[in-house]
Amino acid sequence: MSKGHQDLLTVRGVTKRFAVGDDEVEALAPVDLTIPRGEFVCMIGASGCGKSTLLRIIAGFEEPTTGQVSIDGKPVTGPGSDRGMVFQDYALFPWMTVRQNISFGPRQRHLPREQIDKTADEFVKMVGLERFADRYPNQLSGGMKQRVAIARVLANNANFLLMDEPFGALDALTREQLQNELLQIWKRTGVTTIFVTHSVEEAVLLADRVLVMSAGPGRIDSDFRIDLARPRDVSSPEFNALRRDIARRLTSHLVLAKA
Ligand SMILES: Nc1ncnc2c1ncn2[C@@H]1O[C@H](COP(=O)(O)OP(=O)(O)OP(=O)(O)O)[C@@H](O)[C@H]1O
């Protein structure tokens, strides 16, 4: 197999400018990025450096000003069920139960009834919500809602899980639990994952690779490979060395931005 076939996602020369009144914001300078199939990538960077913009362009919600995103060599021209997004604020359908939220994609695609039921069963179980399948989102905790959001993406056959600060609103204990569950799901499904976070520790805990972004205009500043075996020990010297290196990269930009 040629190298090109192993690369699921390529971002080539992607820039983004937003018009703000008579002015323009350069949200992304040319970004080049290749993410192989199955990789877990975290993006980290100061507020406003373009993380969400890049994620939304990959999702197809936003068009790049120049450049192109391709998946398996095919240009992305809009949203697709191959790419599912999970947001900090859950974005579930409040009028649907857990089960209905999770089976939304298969129902939209008019799959046969038995297949819809089977998929719903499988993914309700995968995120451990069997006892809550008939509840509505407002009857769930934040952690449960985020499990539903992840299951909804995966039940729709996505091979790309795009997560924008998904655990940012959760308490520390729930967050830790969800991080572990997400890693298990990722291992089990092999879904390629791009995860935006503000926490260096979370990035080093989860990712195969951490992209540090910097602002003015937004770009990928550095690309750290995290070769630590999982489960990772947050108190190990290797973990802390990586955490320190990444934090240094991040703060060097903050100091420059203020200068
Ligand atoms: N729709 C829009 N219209 C105008 N400017 C925008 C729009 N979306 C984003 N921007 C600007 O583009 C830049 C990048 O924003 P973006 O939300 O991608 O950053 P971010 O790194 O995700 O920030 P945060 O960590 O705070 O979520 C910012 O300067 C922002 O104000």
UniProtKB/TrEMBL annotation:
Residues 9-240 form the ABC transporter domain. Involved in beta-(1-->2)glucan export. Transmembrane domains (TMD) form a pore in the inner membrane and the ATP-binding domain (NBD) is responsible for energy generation. GO terms for molecular function: ATP binding; ATP hydrolysis activity. Belongs to the ABC transporter superfamily. This is NitT/TauT family transport system ATP-binding protein/sulfonate transport system ATP-binding protein. PROSITE patterns: ABC_TRANSPORTER_1, ABC_TRANSPORTER_2. Keywords: ATP-binding, Nucleotide-binding, Transport. It comes from Bradyrhizobium erythrophlei. One of its GO terms (biological process) is quaternary ammonium group transport.
